[in-house]
TrEMBL record, chain A:
Residues 50-274 form the ABC transmembrane type-2 domain. It is a multi-pass membrane protein. It comes from Chryseobacterium rhizoplanae. One of its GO terms (biological process) is lipopolysaccharide transport. This is Transport permease protein. It holds the Pfam family ABC2_membrane. The lineage of its organism: Bacteria, Pseudomonadati, Bacteroidota, Flavobacteriia, Flavobacteriales. Keywords: Cell inner membrane, Cell membrane, Membrane, Transmembrane, Transmembrane helix, Transport. One of its GO terms (molecular function) is ABC-type transporter activity. It is found in: Cell inner membrane; Cell membrane. The chain crosses the membrane at residues 53-72, 84-103, 123-149, 161-188, 194-213, 251-271. GO terms for cellular component: ATP-binding cassette (ABC) transporter complex. Its main location: membrane. Belongs to the ABC-2 integral membrane protein family.
Length: 282, 419
């Protein structure tokens, strides 16, 4: 009788290729991404009275504060756009980016409990964070559309064909938060100092990004520097597309896309490397 | 056909505070790596023995583990605390990677190192079944198909749409285990998860796991301190000691090996020069051992045979020998003292004392002996405490796996008058 041929379907090794991104495995776990998103959503609003309305309250209050401080007191220019709409656009985009980044950057430290007990492709976690934040963004975006519709009706917002690029802009921002977040979450497993750095780093980064001011208001040197910030292209394109103001060129978006894709690749590679052994150091 | 093959698995951990010196070690590693040399920290490290204080900062939790598991086998992994059992399971379930080595598997591995991983208290039982199932690697479709079966198995149907934070801990565990029990992976890794839950449910889980291996031909790796459960469920065993495989074989002989390797020696035999044997100028002990009366595993039904051989140097006295058995709570189970010589008639030379502890006297647990020798019922010739230790394994009664309470475990005959 012949022995049946021994076959192996999976292997576990001490070392693995740096560029095995395991995206196929992530795809197999897509239902888990869905469940994590659902969990985030459910857990945010169980036992709150206002529920998703809280999503509105945050950008409204922030916009009002900016309106008073940067608009009235500091008198920052808005390229001729209605200040409320200008700040609301900035706040809506920025909220998405910063909350995604901060949440993904604590992937390993925050989920050590689950990660220590069961294996699934760890990439699922930051991915689900970015997606569940996308749903919050969706709600806030509705608020922006309402405000925008009002100004459009008044003739103060001048949209153009670039509006169609909006989903792409959001995607870019999501990938950017994902990439940088993964890099930080990987490094914080060993060096917790980075979590502190990121905390105030993000709040400072807002001032390096045209959230509350237009790029056109920057002096020459800083303006050139701003073009290398991947978010500049995204924010300027968004404001240009919907409100019709700003200093935007497709080249800026090209630079953003390039930098973001590189960061994303670095992020995934480091993340996959760390996920194998982070339980020993976290 | 093999389901799993592990080759040279080792796992190194760094002791103490991770953080101080981390950067310098990392830089050093990197420096070796770019010069194409091996990681300098892999060469050092000590075997994992908790009780001795090591000099090295690195320790090997697992060292050169090699084994093969046939498809459909149920393998029990046993060993003392800190022997590396959990680390091995973690490596096998991909929670952490091995420092060296290679594992090949045929089929999906699902691991159950904890029940209810990822359960969210705010979500309902239903939502958590889907969440937990997805975490364990099931697809939505699979869970949907098995949902009714899972709920049925858990017995919490009434509360399935209530947030699990309102569950009792028993219900929580039931639901969580129900999900895990319906995993469809070819290889299932189970850590000591059955310690929770009541006896009835434990029985149900073990039954389910038995079905899984016997009926469905799936492979199970099982870690537990409950030897009764291991014996019941597993066909083969692996004994780990200090991160290395001490013994591999069928489950019964593995458990016997495990008993032999107990921290306290279960027998003392001395063949060399009498001067160096345990004892003093009056008494030298040559052999003291415990063994099962029936079979070769010390358990509740086996009885315990005790044998003592000693050399007496005191002539013409009345010699008595006393055995005191204590359990780990320092409670004296019995005290047996008897003369071994006629009055004033002890001889110089070798005496052997043997007796049986009958079945039904000792409950499952750990025991050790205190031994002393007396002269004329007045003077102590020699005494030794904490000498030979042994463990009596539990035996399941009907379907009950856990150890019954009580110091003794008598088997009284009932005289029953039926109506």
């Amino acid at each position: 009788m012949n022995e049946p041929q021994q076959k192996w379907t999976e292997t576990i090794d001490a070392d693995h290729s740096l560029f095995d991104l395991k995206l196929k495995e992530v795809w197999r776990y897509k239902d888990l991404v869905y469940m994590f998103v659902k969990r985030d959503f459910v857990s945010s609003f169980k036992q709150t009275i206002l529920g998703p309305i809280w999503f509105f309250i945050n950008p409204i209050l922030t916009t009002i504060v900016y309106l008073v401080i940067f608009g009235r007191i500091a008198k920052l220019p808005t390229d001729g756009a209605p200040p409320l709409l200008f700040y609301l656009a900035g706040v809506t985009l920025w909220n998405y980016f910063s909350s995604s980044l901060l949440a993904t950057s604590s992937t390993f430290t925050g989920n050590a409990g689950i990660f220590g007990k069961v294996y699934f492709p760890r990439l699922v976690t930051p991915l689900s964070i970015v997606i569940s934040n996308l749903m919050r963004f969706g709600v806030q975006f509705v608020l922006f559309i309402l405000a925008w519709a009002y100004y459009y009706y008044k003739g103060e917002a001048h949209p153009n064909i670039w509006i169609l690029a909006t989903p792409f802009l959001i995607l870019l921002m999501a990938l950017f938060a994902l990439g940088v977040g993964m890099i930080f979450s990987s490094l914080t497993t060993k060096y917790k100092d980075l979590a502190m750095l990121l905390g105030f780093g993000v709040s400072l980064y807002m001032y390096a990004t045209p959230v509350i001011y237009p790029v056109s208001s920057l002096p020459g040197f800083f303006k050139n520097l701003a073009y290398y910030n991947p978010l500049t292209g995204i924010f300027e394109c968004f404001k240009y597309a919907w409100i019709g103001v700003g200093d935007f060129s497709p080249a800026m978006l090209g630079i953003s896309t390039g930098i973001i894709l590189i960061l994303l690749m670095i992020g995934i590679v480091i993340f996959n490397k760390v996920e194998k052994s982070f339980m020993d150091t976290v | 056909m093999l389901a799993l093959k592990a080759e040279n698995i080792s796992k190194q951990y760094r002791l103490g505070q991770v953080g101080t010196g981390t950067l310098s070690h990392d830089l050093n590693r990197f420096w070796y790596k770019i010069r194409g040399k091996e990681d300098p920290y892999l060469k050092i490290g000590e075997t994992n023995d908790r009780t001795t204080k090591g000099d090295s900062e690195y320790v090997w939790s697992l060292r050169d583990i090699n084994f093969e598991i046939e498809q459909g086998d149920a393998v029990g992994i046993i060993g003392r605390n800190g022997a590396g059992k959990s680390t091995l399971l973690k490596v096998l379930s991909k929670v952490t990677k091995p420092t060296t080595g290679h594992i090949s598997t045929n089929g999906r591995i699902a691991s159950l190192l904890e029940v209810g991983t990822g359960f969210h208290p705010e979500m309902t039982g239903r939502e958590n079944v889907f969440l937990n199932g997805a975490i364990l690697g099931m697809t939505r479709k699979e869970i949907k198909r098995k949902f009714d079966e899972i709920v049925d198995f858990s017995g919490v149907e009434r509360y399935i749409d209530t947030p699990v934070k309102r569950y009792s801990s028993g219900m929580y565990v039931r639901l969580a285990f129900a999900v895990a029990a319906h995993l469809e992976s070819e290889i299932l890794i189970v850590d000591e998860v059955l310690a929770v839950g009541d006896a009835e449910f434990q029985k149900k889980c073990l039954g389910k796991m038995n079905d899984v291996t016997r009926g469905e031909g799936r492979t199970i790796l099982f870690v537990s301190h409950n030897m009764t459960a291991v014996k019941e469920l597993c066909t083969k065993g692996i004994l780990l000691t200090h991160g290395q495989i001490d013994y591999q074989g069928d489950i019964l002989s593995t458990i016997i090996e495990y008993q032999k390797s107990s921290a306290r020696e279960s027998s003392y035999i001395y063949n060399g020069n009498l001067d160096e044997a345990i004892g003093n100028e009056n008494i030298k002990i040559k052999e003291f051992s415990v063994s099962p009366i029936k079979g070769n595993l010390l358990d509740i039904d086996s009885g315990v045979h005790v044998k003592l051989t000693f050399h007496n140097y005191c002539p013409d006295i009345t010699l008595d020998t006393t055995f005191e058995l204590k359990n780990y709570d320092e409670l004296v189970i019995f005290h047996v003292g008897k003369f071994v010589s006629a009055k004033g008639d002890a001889k110089v030379g070798e005496y052997t004392v043997e007796f049986d502890i009958p079945t039904g006297l000792l409950n499952a647990g750990n025991y050790y002996f205190k031994l002393y020798f007396g002269k004329d019922q007045k003077t102590l010739l020699y005494g030794i405490d904490n000498f030979i230790g042994f463990e009596v394994e539990n035996v399941k009664v009907g379907d009950i796996m856990y150890v019954y309470p009580g110091v003794t475990r008598p088997q009284f005959e009932y005289k029953v008058q039926t109506p």
